[in-house]
Amino acid sequence: MKKDLKLSGVIPANLLPFTSDLDIDERNYRRHLRALIETPGVSAITTNGHAAEIATLTREEQQRSLGITVEEADKEIPVICGIYADGTKQAAELAKMAEREGADCLLIFPSAVLDLGAQLRPEMAYRHYEAIAEATSLPMIAFVYPVTSGLHLPTETVVRICRDIDQVVAIKEWSNDISVYERNYRELKALPKHISVLTSFSKALLPSLCIGADGILSGHGSMIAEIQAALFDAVQKGDLALAREHAARLYPLVQVFYAEPFIDMHNRMKEAIAMLSRIDEAHVRPPLQRISAEEREQIRKALIEARLPGSENLR
Asked: C-alpha 47: how far from its chain's center?
């Protein structure tokens, strides 16, 4: 196992372009990946996550998506592979595949089976992680879902998983509750073992960074990695005034991309990178559907207000 892997900095979860026939658009995918990899401050990349519409990908497509990412990263930065499966056995097999394909780390999604009350049976989540760890030598990231979700891991469970399973080296903290975030951060930093806390609190990124974070891991990073890097750097240097300036640029984007219905967040981001000419077209796989022309206009205005590179051509 790569026990010395300490994740920090900006770690985008890439979007996945599709052709009009809804196949993986390899040319635009490589283009998107290279742009992220070459962004100053990006320290790793996460593939096969929510942003890549992982629920719609076959096992073969997941393997191909990961293979392309590994090729483009070319050992410049670590590649983190999402492990998205409801069955523990299936998750373990995906982990083995990811290791064979050259992934450097795994992001473990919670099983949807746990949504029916597993918070009362914490050993279920623990055993899920333990079994995956037994199947691979790769380091792992625990994915903490929002407190409003039945898939949320309470702090006690998160601490146990991180403390007792040697391969768990980080958490993706998406609790969406700032008090829970702070408790998770402080409890994990009190452990004798180093655990990287990677905030995914995109709706309130600055407050979570001010509490403390080793890095940022989110799909939003697929289109704003340069702002995330500048914000993270400003907080690390203790320059709160500058950090507030960067957060102010993020504000209009957050209001648009994380509006209800929440299910469209990555759908909207894909439209945005197409508007910015970073990919050719913004096709999404069903059950997702393209957003309305009215919503695309709201995105256009937000991109201009945030002064993202390429937005000058949208006026």
From this structure: 8
